[in-house]
């Protein structure tokens, strides 16, 4: 199915409210789940409850925990104006966006231009030139005197950031890429980007690391979803000034039972109080031009068997947001 927003509440046909936690408790007690409908009047479309489950995936050290949620049935849709109407949200986001950022196409779809966001965030241009302060950089023309605007006015960039934040927050609420992919084509210069190569949930941090490593300095902006694991502030006298927000990592098996791959995603920013405003356990989305670090090996004794040593191969992804809108709480 995977076509709509994952909901946290619903009601039965008698108007009795149910939270996703209450439905999960009923499922655990093997009680019958009532027929559910949307609790936003006057919608009332049919819904289904998807209980929490674990899913085995290739090369994962442990099954992926998929939280419980409430979603649409195969033949239902939220009415226009319902707060869970994802197509309606997309329409509203696009209506408020800059036409230079989201362009209408002849087939009714729209094209989101990641290059505009990339350049506004200070990424390297497709010609290999980093935008200079003031918004201009040499385009590398043979004449030597041609310049191209790679960054936008503050107003335009603010619009691009708002639109991107709204879209990735909506994607994090959805069951899959399908809904946004049906409406929005992603383009980076002349290259079309599929949604699975733009938005990455925790179980795909390894794919994100490989993508960013392959792109290196020319990597385009991507979005990662995660859950806050910890915060770290620099010690007095430390050479670095940034604080860090760290997300729950992905652990991946290797062919060696004593060797594990670890993929970590972190936000680095001088404003530690701002990062701390996202408490441990908060669901977030982070977007921008990420940096990768080459894998680093460390060894630790196996707590279950001190005679064995486990090697952890850590792959780090770090985002240093230029704007605070690049980090969003999912709600």
Q: Quick one: overall form?
A: globular
Rg, Cα atoms, Å: 22 Å
CATH architecture of the largest domain: Beta Barrel
CATH topology of the largest domain: OB fold (Dihydrolipoamide Acetyltransferase, E2P)
Distance between the termini: 22 Å
Kindly estimate the percentage of residues that lie in beta strands according to DSSP. Answer: 25-35%
Q: Strand count, sense and closure of the main sheet?
A: 9 strands, mixed
How many separate helices? 7
| Portion in helices | 10-25%
Order of helices and strands: EEHEEEEEHEEHEEHHEEEHEEEEHEEEE
The tally of domains stands at: 3
CATH C-level class of the largest domain is Mainly Beta
Q: Mean of the pLDDT scores?
A: 86
| Overall SS class | alpha+beta
Indicate the low-confidence ranges by residue numbers: 125-151
The total strand number stands at 22
